[in-house]
Design goal:
The complex is a heterodimer. Chain A has one domain: 3-Layer(aba) Sandwich (Rossmann fold), CATH 3.40.50.510. Chain A is 47% helix and 15% strand. Chain A is built from five helices and four strands. Chain B starts with a strand and ends with a helix. Chain B is globular. By secondary structure, chain B is mainly alpha-helical. Classes of the chains: A alpha/beta, B mainly alpha. Chain A: It holds the Pfam family EIIA-man. Chain A: InterPro entries: DhaM (IPR039643), DhaM_N (IPR012844), PTS_EIIA_man-typ (IPR004701), PTS_EIIA_man-typ_sf (IPR036662).
Chain lengths: 129, 223
């Protein structure tokens, strides 16, 4: 698929899956979408391995935008991007945006064929800073 | 085997012992990895309690999970040249910890492995440690004074650079962790609490000091 992919990373698998459901409601299958949540051992947290897997699943040559909830999700997502390495890493951006609103807005933008930069900018508009 | 100057050479303030094998002592890396995992396991509940006070309460369990995964491969990792041992430890922590401590402690070890030589003297260790601290600061978008592990790492680096003995460095690390108690957290979950983060020790600073003590003891035993 040529549309930008969306990855949702929450500390809670329930939040991640629920957010993905809301994205699907807006864009159906027009956007590559994957989510992950939890520390991989049944607890709250985020897993670098799971994030790398989600990026693979939502991979698009147009790039992937990652929406995260709290700090650890951001740090682990940045680590995952670094471990995936170039050339793909330059096409993956961790967004500074609220996870639910950001994911829905970014995916809606992506479904219209917007570039990764446009998709990320749409998500960033939701953040005050 | 990790070659480090023994305690006596560490005590030689301002002078770095280089290339003189008579001043170097060998450290059993496999034993050190096991000792580090033991230390984290022994203190897991304490670390969790510290993190529960001002964070999400997963630090002890997460660190224990990571270091148990490292322990499981202690012999394999220890058989590698020191830089590769450190990188392998870092990568394992990144993949298994399951919280922000994974990338942070993982980056510390990975960056240290990238910068250190196979048989480091004090000067190389100090330089490599400084670069590793920069990498951790970048990963956490943090700096010294924000009630994080950096508040222990930086004083340890300065003590290394300043010619302190191993015993002094271990005490400096403990004191530095203690010094995070009155700080206000500016990074991580604890920062959500604002002023209420004051009066509690940072869990990451504590685990960092514990690891410094473990390494210090291993050097002391091999000296």
């Amino acid at each position: 698929m040529s549309n930008v992919g969306i990855v949702i990373v929450s500390h809670s698998p329930l939040v991640a899956e629920g957010t993905a459901d809301m994205v699907r409601q807006m864009v159906g299958d027009e956007v590559p979408l994957a989510w992950c949540g939890g520390n991989g051992h049944g607890g709250l947290g985020t897993s670098v391995e799971a994030i790398m897997g989600a990026i693979d699943k939502a991979w698009s040559e147009a790039g992937v935008a990652i929406l995260v909830d709290l700090g650890g999700a951001e740090t682990n997502s940045e680590m995952a991007v670094e471990m995936i390495g170039e050339p793909r890493a330059q096409k993956i951006i961790v967004c500074n945006a609220p996870i639910v609103e950001g994911a829905v807005m970014a995916a809606t933008e992506a479904s219209g064929g917007a570039s990764l930069r446009e998709v990320v900018a749409t998500a960033h508009e939701l953040s005050p800073s | 085997m990790l070659q480090l100057p023994n305690d006596r050479s560490f005590a030689t303030a301002g002078k770095v012992q280089t290339g003189n094998s008579g001043d170097m002592t060998a450290l059993n890396l496999s034993k050190l990895i096991t000792a580090a995992a033991d230390t984290i396991a022994e203190h897991a509940e304490e670390l969790t309690a510290l993190d529960q006070a001002i964070g999400d309460g997963d630090h002890g369990l997460n660190m224990k999970r990571g270091f148990e995964a490292v322990r499981a491969e202690a012999d394999v990792f220890a058989a590698k040249p020191l830089p590769d041992t450190l990188k392998a430890i870092g990568t394992k922590l990144v993949m298994t910890v399951g919280g922000a401590s994974g990338p942070l402690f993982g980056t510390l070890f990975m960056a240290l492995g990238k910068e250190i030589s196979a048989e480091p003297d004090r000067a190389n260790l100090t330089t490599a440690f400084g670069k590793a601290i920069e990498a951790v600061a970048a990963r956490g978008k943090s700096q010294v004074g924000q009630k994080t592990m950096l508040d222990v790492l930086q004083p340890v680096h300065d003590a290394l650079a300043g010619g302190k003995t191993v015993a002094e460095i271990v005490d400096i690390a403990d004191a530095a962790a203690e010094a995070t108690v009155p700080m206000k957290a500016l990074r991580g979950r604890a920062s959500f609490l604002g002023d209420r983060s004051i009066g509690h020790m940072d869990a990451g600073a504590r685990s960092t000091a514990l690891l410094v003590r473990t390494v210090g003891q291993a050097i002391g035993e091999s000296a």
